[in-house]
Structure formats: structure tokens, C-alpha cells
Amino acid sequence: MSCRILVLISGSGTNLQAIIDACKTPDYPGQVVGVLSNKAEAYGLERAANENIPTTTLSHRDFESRAAYDQALMAAIDTYQPNIVVLAGFMRILTPAFVQHYQGQLINIHPSLLPKYQGLNTHQRAIDAGDKEHGVSVHFVTEELDGGPVILQAKVPVFDDDTAQELAARVHEQEHRIYPLVIKWLCQGRLLMRNEQAVLDDVPLPVSGYASDD
């Protein structure tokens, strides 16, 4: 039986597209059963509609508190009965209750080599710091913002004359490569979170994730 993947988005959905495309390949063990956005104008909803994937829009502006929104969000997600919940540019800070509800099933992709540059504007921050390499991290979501155990990272060079936009484009290419791979591991049952640590094939991963020197 195919693993059921629910994707949360707020914007254009390029990572969503990469996941959808991966699910079309032979022997991929999962399928996107739904896409949920907090913004009705998110282009990712069109990407889903083009593939006949059901969508839900739930605006945070319709709720008086973050906790109330997250309760409604959980109810909406659970109607899809997902095995995995994937954050793909979902621009919301999630409450502890939400994170605990999906503990071990909830993953995020963040455009930096965590633990560096948690939060926003990561590409410009890497340039401003004079970093020679930058990248992207896929991690389990915990109550600490961008702080859950890293599963996999991909690195890109930072060139002296880079703009944030150029660096972001380089990072995006790697995002689209590693996110479907991590989701595949989860669907296969090879990946789990144990004692606040990512574990692949029963081997605890180091702080920087699997094969971080590749």
C-alpha cells in the first residue's frame, strides 16, 4: 500500500512539484493525497489541481489565535489520513500541540546548513557572513524553530559576486533533489526519529545528517 503524503504550502510550490514528479516515477513508495495552504493565492494549489490532487485552503486570518488555527489545521490534515506531513514553504510557526500530534511524521526543508541561519533571509545572511558554502537541510520538526534533528543536507558553493537570488537558485536545485529522497526513506520505513535523533536503517545520524560530506 502506498504511503500517503500530505504537503503544506504557502507559496509557489516548487518543492511540492518536485515531490509530485518523484511520486510519478516507477517504484516510488508514496503519493501526494492532499495539499493544504494557508493562502488562497498560493500557486502551489494550481500545481496540485493540475495533477487532480485534492486541496484545502485554511486561512490563519480567520482564527483568533495560533492555537485555534493549529487545531483546525490538524482536523483538516487528518481528514486526508496521511502517513507523512511535509512542510514545503509553509510559512507558519507551529504550536507545540501541532508538532507533538505529528511527531516523527512531520518534516521540513530549510534553506541553510542547520544549525546555521535558522529563520528567514538565509541566503543573504550566508553572503554577509562571508561563507564559502551554503545549502539546505531536511529535518524532523520539533518544538524548536528550525531546530529538529537534521536528516540530510546538500551543500552549494558561495561565489564572491553572488546575489541572494543567485544563491537561492543554486540551493533550490538541491532542495528538489534531496526532499523527495528523504520522503522516500520515510515511506519505506527506513527513517524514523528516536530520542530526538534521526535514525536511518537503524543507525543514528550525526548532527549534520546523512552523508554530510558528500
Automatic annotation (TrEMBL):
Catalytic-site annotation from UniProt: H110 (proton donor)
Site (Raises pKa of active site His): D146
Residues at which N(1)-(5-phospho-beta-D-ribosyl)glycinamide binds: G13, T14, N15
GO molecular-function term, one example from the UniProt record: phosphoribosylglycinamide formyltransferase activity
Entries under Pfam families matching the protein: Formyl_trans_N
Keywords, ordered alphabetically: Purine biosynthesis, Transferase
Catalytic activity from the UniProt record: N(1)-(5-phospho-beta-D-ribosyl)glycinamide + (6R)-10-formyltetrahydrofolate = N(2)-formyl-N(1)-(5-phospho-beta-D-ribosyl)glycinamide + (6S)-5,6,7,8-tetrahydrofolate + H(+)
Pathway entry: Purine metabolism; IMP biosynthesis via de novo pathway; N(2)-formyl-N(1)-(5-phospho-D-ribosyl)glycinamide from N(1)-(5-phospho-D-ribosyl)glycinamide (10-formyl THF route): step 1/1
Annotated GO biological process: 'de novo' IMP biosynthetic process
Residues binding (6R)-10-formyltetrahydrofolate: R66, M91, R92, I93, L94, N108
Entry EC no(s): 2.1.2.2
Entry's Gene Ontology cellular component terms: cytosol
Domain of life: Bacteria
Residue ranges annotated for the Formyl transferase N-terminal domain, each copy included: 4-183
EC class of the enzyme, as a word: transferase
Family: Belongs to the GART family.
Stored HAMAP family: PurN
PANTHER family: PHOSPHORIBOSYLGLYCINAMIDE FORMYLTRANSFERASE (PTHR43369:SF2)
Annotated function: Catalyzes the transfer of a formyl group from 10-formyltetrahydrofolate to 5-phospho-ribosyl-glycinamide (GAR), producing 5-phospho-ribosyl-N-formylglycinamide (FGAR) and tetrahydrofolate.
Protein name according to UniProt: Phosphoribosylglycinamide formyltransferase
